[in-house]
Amino acid sequence: MLPRHELLRGSRHPQLLEPLIASAETVLRTWQPQWTAFLGGALREEAEACLGQLSELTLHSDGGYPGAERRRLLLQRRESSQEPSQLAGELVGELPVDLAGELTGLEISGNFLFDPAEADDLRQALWAAGAAAADLGDVWRLGDRGGQAIVTSDLAQRLDGCQTNVRSVEVRLEARPLADLQLPAVRNPKRLNTVEASLRLDAVASAGFGLSRARMAELIRQGEVRINWRSVSSPSKELAVGDRVQLAGRGELELEQMTITKRDRWRLTLLRR
Questions:
Q1: Structurally, how many domains does the chain consist of?
Q2: I need a surface site. Which of 35, 63, 104, 257 has the fewest CB within 10 A?
Q3: Is a pLDDT exceeding 70 seen at residue 99?
Q4: β-strands 230-231, 266-272: how paired?
Q5: Under a CB-based contact definition with an 8 Å cutoff, are residues 212 and 205 in contact?
Q6: Does the pLDDT at position 200 exceed 70?
Q7: How far is CA 18 from the centre of its chain?
Q8: Same domain, yes or no, for 120 and 207?
Q9: What are the E-state strand segments in the chain?
């Protein structure tokens, strides 16, 4: 048995992390690799830190594309783990085909010209259509045409050809190979320097993500922005060094350094990835 009490010490999500520890115990006992469900960024990072302490276990993550936020973890016993360099054949991302799991794409087609939708609207519509969070990876918009998602193959088969509604818009759901998706751009890390009048979330995030302050404030109120993976709805929330700001579909911004100028403004160093 694994030392669960020690592994869970300091956890922000102990009830969600405990089943993952149980899965690791099963893998170590049976020597059979096992995929977790899709995990959100906060839980995945905590699970990687927690389970990464186990010398007998190896971890791989896969979300369908390199920049995915929601990912599944492949748990393997170290002695039996298979690395891409050790196996012949085509690779999927960083994983061999036989270990990559069954992920596919889902097209969400509709006319959103008069009722624009955010990614969270699309996700809630998929939940209403019968999708479970465990089977649902990243979801993103495609302008006024709808959006796309990464899902398990089982979920894609269940929803393929179904119709549902995203707010007032009727949409059609269709399974798509991952290769046919218009995946979100993968951004290279970029360090930015800016001077701001305050440390307000809307001011700092608008500078870092390149959006107007009014648009950023709107996204914050809509629940599209998180600080350290925690939802926030107040544009006036102040940031501190080390805070990480996540914006759905646009990546992450970290406040690395801040100093006060002679004119009582803030000189900030930001890392966007």
A1: 3
A2: 257
A3: no
A4: unpaired
A5: no
A6: yes
A7: 20
A8: no
A9: 34-35, 57-62, 72-77, 91-92, 95-96, 103-109, 136-141, 146-152, 163-166, 169-176, 190-196, 225-227, 230-231, 244-247, 251-260, 266-272
- The CATH number for 151's domain is 3.30.70
Check whether residue 206 and residue 248 sit in a common domain.
yes
The one-letter amino acid code at 7 reads L
pLDDT exceeds cutoff 60 at 94: no
d(CA 45, CA 62): 13
Distance of alpha carbon 232 from alpha carbon 245, whole angstroms: 10
Q: Could you give the CA distance from residue 156 to residue 106 in angstroms, rounded to a whole number? A: 6
Q: List, for residues 46-77, the tens digit of each pLDDT value.
A: 999 999 999 999 999 999 998 899 999 999 99
Range of the domain at 260: 190-272
The tokens 């509709």 sit on which residue?
Answer: 110
Tokens of 226: 């998180």
In angstroms, the CA 98 to CA 75 distance is: 14
DSSP calls for 143-191 = GGGEEEEEEEHHHHHHHTT-EEEETTEEEEEEEE-GGGS-PPPPPPPEE
Coil, helix or strand at residue 247: strand
Burial class for 263, CB neighbours closer than 10 Å (0-12, 13-18, 19+): exposed
Please tell me the predicted confidence (pLDDT) of residue 90: 34
Asked, for residue 185, whether it belongs to a domain, the answer is no
Q: Tens digit of pLDDT for each residue in 156-197? A: 999 999 999 999 999 999 999 999 999 988 788 999 999 999
